[in-house]
Amino acid sequence: MLAVRGVHTYYGNIRALGGVDLDVHPGEIVALIGANGAGKSTLMMTICGSPRARQGQIIFDGRDITGMTTHEIARLRIAQSPEGRRIFARMSVLENLQMGSVVAGVQHFDEDLERVFKLFPRLKERLNQRGGTLSGGEQQMLAIARALMARPRLLLLDEPSLGLAPLIVKQIFDAIRELNRSEGLTVFIVEQNAYHALKLAHRGYVMVNGQITLSGPSKELISREEVRAAYLEGAH
């Protein structure tokens, strides 16, 4: 479904990604792990068109999207829940969800609303509350729910566990697992919490200094000594 081929991304003259190759197949959960500053979020943003890849190709469902704008990419039903949540703080929960549904249209709005409420019942309780007044965990639920309102074929999740209590992290990861299991939703997740990400995913990639250094089935990566030493010891 998604193929990243030889992608180089720069911020000015500083190279952030150096020839990244990566695949996400339909119905998979794929995790990208690595230390802070490794380039994980830059890859996620590059897939969405901002910043643009300076070299290489990004293919979605057989179509080259490398030169497309962010809103053109969104219309292909690639939805992102960005790092730091970035909800509309002054808007209510309902208004945030309405913004998320713009790409999909209004015909399925009520049905999609019930779907996200089933995953995150807390949002139904906070429906008319401003996004900026929600707790960190509730804001993360809202960011993911807003992305789901676009009816994505590919859901991009950037650091969904960042700064959250373990109980909230479990709830969010359980919701992602259920979406994949029951609907076959394809998910690409970027995470610093390597243990949680690899337990959730079917396959994983390890990024170091803007390059992929390891890849394979998640169980295989969890068992590798170098991965355990660098990313897993004490994480769980």
UniProtKB/TrEMBL annotation:
Residues 2-234 form the ABC transporter domain. Gene3D superfamilies: P-loop containing nucleotide triphosphate hydrolases. Keywords: Amino-acid transport, ATP-binding, Nucleotide-binding, Transport. It comes from Terrihabitans rhizophilus. It comes from the Bacteria. The lineage of its organism: Bacteria, Pseudomonadati, Pseudomonadota, Alphaproteobacteria, Hyphomicrobiales. Belongs to the ABC transporter superfamily. The keyword Transport applies. This is ABC transporter ATP-binding protein. Pfam families: ABC_tran. One of its GO terms (molecular function) is ATP binding.
